[in-house]
């Protein structure tokens, strides 16, 4: 007699065969018709800050910026942040510069002792809209896209290296004490956010990192193994031996 699926079974299967949870990578919240602005900054002040920032990071616009250029840019961005502590773009760019100096290993003492992680958190905090579903301008979207992608990548790398590192105490407080799966969840959440703000590579990473997608892949793999075993059994039963060595 044929068996029917319960509603719970249907819900589980629906989640498994979706590439990502419903709504997690929804339509972009960026509204290109909005003028570029940032919370807490009048247009005139923002324009001046952008010019100062561009002059600061322009020397880094090369394939291999020198360590001296990086240090100088970091120092100038620090001065800018000290004067304007809610200027999200400066935090984001300082984090990028610090990654070029110290690398991407959240377990390293150099990264731990720097402001890299806190800079990304500050960039996200100060660039985020004041209302959860509020649309943002291109500038806000650009900052949030970059900061979420950077933090998501760093967190994902930390999850992958969790079992092989001995420096767990160097992790940021937000990740300390979490197991691999919990750290991956945080990474995926950031990558999904970056994807919503337009980072296509982060979006792909978020989808591939989704546990339901991984479960689906495991189910398919197990089904293929079972099918191959059935084929072997039939061949061993005398029906065919022609391709047994190729399986």
UniProtKB/TrEMBL annotation:
Biological processes per GO annotation: tyrosine metabolic process
Superkingdom per UniProt: Eukaryota
InterPro entries: TTC36
PANTHER family: CDNA SEQUENCE BC021608 (PTHR21405), TETRATRICOPEPTIDE REPEAT PROTEIN 36 (PTHR21405:SF0)
Annotated family: Belongs to the TTC36 family.
Record-given protein name: Tetratricopeptide repeat protein 36 homolog
Organism annotation: Talaromyces islandicus
